[in-house]
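Changelog-adjacent note: as of this version, every example in the card shows the full chain rather than a window. The one below runs 146 residues end to end.
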Amino acid sequence: MSKGPILILSSGEDDDLETIIFGARLASRTKSKLVIIYVIEVDLVLPVTADLDSEVQRAEDLLRRLKTDADYNNNLIDTQLLQGREKGTALVDEALAQDAEAIVVSVNYDRRLGGFDISDDTRYILEHANCAVWLVRQPLGNSLGA
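Full-length structure tokens:
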């Protein structure tokens, strides 16, 4: 029986590559396929299937660059572009559809509001994913503008 893929949520930020390398190492250990996923969030005033050509093109360019940059240890790396109302919901639904082994999400340490907090999308993934969820917290310097 083959294992499902490891899904990585791409944020489109600078920390994506570090998170993908972590996911690639995990995939190497478990001999799993790695899927880098970018979710275009569609505004409520539009249908979820709306044609968002400029955003789709930007996301496809980002995924192509990430796949090239992350070609790590001969892993099987795929990319996938999703459209949804919220990133967390779209990723959890996709993890279920692909019978994913794990989800890897990058988390920044944001202390501007006086304490550690995670995004609503990350909270949703932690609460609803049917597979393992790995959080990769970036170093403090990455999220404090240092």
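Structural remarks: The domain at 6-143 is CATH 3.40.50.620 (Rossmann fold).
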